[in-house]
Amino acid sequence: MAVTLKDIAQQANVSLTTVSRVLNYDASLSVSDETRQRVFEIAEQLNYVKHKRFGRQQVKKIAVVQWYTEKQELDDLYYMSIRMGIEQHCQQLGFKAIQVYQNNLDQLPADVDGIIAVGKFSQSQIKQFKQINSHVILVDYDGLGLDCDSVVTDFDHSVSNAIDTFLLRNLKDIGMIYGSETTADDEENVPDPRRHYFIKKMQAEQIYQPEFVFEGRYTSESGYQMMKQAIRQLGEGLPHAFFIANDPMAVGALKALQEAKIEIPNRVSLISFNDTTIANYVYPGLSSVHVATDQMGASAVDLMVEQFNSDRDYVKKVTVGTKLIERQSVVNHR
């Protein structure tokens, strides 16, 4: 006699609806990991036919493609934490996450059920992903124009909030250090959206000064060099505040200011972006825009589940909000 959902529900001591939604990987279902695991185990023990395709040999496999190499990822905890958020949520849903790094794209398995690409990829790379599997999610890259579901950060309100924080301290001469980068294959330039929103906000406040804006790379060394350049070029006219595009750059800028014996935050206040662990462990602690990287990762997996379970013919973008974490790098008053 064939095993039914009712049989599983009785043994698992849950409702028939819960069993159905668990076995269909319904991400909107609020159920404990213990209950979810119990349903899967009983379904497998009873050789439930529909569940067999999700059995141990046929678990959904998700390739998590990191645009960085393993070494680069260690230098940028932001992308590492997004990847970890994806892997954790995959584990909760019973999926197998397969790590693939930028320098190993030729090792991308052909039999994966979906691809979550973290970082900046060119159109040709995204086309390559789609040739392997039609289920593709982009994280930290707007995929609407590329016909891909995506998860991004709310840069607009994040940057505006950082500048408002300076303005509340009567800090109106505000500089910026931002990064430039290319896609993983170096085919396309990727502009920093924070620069766009910084200029937009500063112009709206009628306080934008282009000579206060410096372009580098998203590394500590680049942040160090850009701040040294600012100190050298601007002298006494150095802004009293800087918004910096990520934590590694901010750490480098902090070092340059300390070497020049410029007091932080009394002479120069700093606000960084991403709020990785290093923001809290440097001295003084960096005020930083906290990005919910774990939620970005989980949202990407949820979008993948939605693709598995629906036949929608439009793409979707999830924008995750942020919050500013204030520490010692911003002056309390002025």
From TrEMBL:
Gene Ontology MF, one: DNA-binding transcription factor activity
Gene3D superfamilies, per database record: 3.40.50.2300, lambda repressor-like DNA-binding domains
PROSITE patterns for the chain: HTH_LACI_1, HTH_LACI_2
Protein's name according to its UniProt entry: Galactose operon repressor
CDD domains (UniProt xref): HTH_LacI (cd01392), PBP1_GalR (cd01544)
Keyword Glycosyltransferase: no
Lineage of producing organism: Bacteria, Bacillati, Bacillota, Bacilli, Lactobacillales
Alphabetically ordered keywords of this record: DNA-binding, Transcription, Transcription regulation
Organism: Paucilactobacillus wasatchensis
